[in-house]
Fold:
Amino acid sequence: MRLPDSERSRAVLIGTSRYSDPQLPDLPAVRDTVEDLAAALTDPAYGAVPERHCTVLLDNGDIQRVGRSLRAKAAEAEDLLLVHYVGHGLIAPRRQDLYLSLADSEWEDPEFGSLEYRKLRDVVLDSRATSKVIILDCCFSGRALSGTMAGPEAAVMGQVDVAGTYVMASSQGNEVSLIQDGEKNTAFTGRLIRLLREGVSGGPELLSIDEVYRRLQKSMTAEGLPAPLQRGSRNAALLALARNRAHRLPDDPARHEAAVALCEAGKYAEAAETFSALLAERESLLGADHAATLRTRQWLAHARGGAGAPGESADRLREIHARQTRLLGPDHPDSLRSRQFLAVNLGESGRRPEAVRMLRLLWLDRRRVLGADDVATLRTRHVLAHNLARTGERDEAVALLRELIADRERVLGRDHPHTLRARRDLSVLMAAG
Structure:
């Protein structure tokens, strides 16, 4: 296993976010996707190629210019040639050939103004590069509307397969969004970018193309997204795409969990000290935008709020949540947790009406994403009841707590600490009434 020789390798990233043909919907997330992928691949410490060897062709409608750039970089590559495309994939009506749409592609006549996949394949095949990688993030159907993907696997992979190369395609499924609501990047390449940015805790030092594929397949299946497809031959799959940012990070959550337990026990100052030490390590090893770093910063802000600075913590949590939403998506568990921590600290700093509004929406979102009986969803209901009681909405708070106690007894048991806490809060509220 090795990284490619950066001076003898080339990457070509092609993406189309804007279309002149009104029958081809624009894909605004493609621009961020291409730029973020370029940044990940050219990272000086962890990437595969230097910035000067990564060519970005974004929203280009000139098929000749695209072809010339592609041929030139393919001719220069001696070790790794990586070509990535993101946009609408079109199928010619007569021959059923695959075309990669460009800015001036036409829905009715994809043969004119689009990059024919066969030509891209031939250029890659003719390259003298030792390893050749093609990654396609596009629709395969003849109906590329609203960012959907469709098409039988056999027909698609029969066209994209290239001898002596490694080919990865985002999907072959029907009616699956290319772009998930609220996410900055396309679903497939966004998760590829996240994997390159975050690495794999406890994983190998180098992330091979095959390792990246297996991780993407696992994560996308777990999220209910269609699993990617791949074809590989020779040793292309053994070449590394990046260094693993999390290689030196132990896959041991014990310290984090211990600090969380301190928060749960109300020992916020002590928890803040532990989270502060963890944050320094993770920023050094993983960088400021790694999910684990943001998670630690999230808990640190919450702990400091509990230790007596809820207003300052609320301001920090707004920033953390905005960054998590941009990088991870609004429905990621970490993004949802930041919203709850923000609401808690808003309430404790005296802004309870705002906290109540946030918690009502969060309850709906957690129920939608995690399920009504998830521990986190139940906790949101408890925090909502707590804040309602302190805004004078006693009857609603009592009703919520009674329902919550019944649900926690059913899900967690009568003697679970969360059940006992809800029962105690109801007793206090009833006594005060």
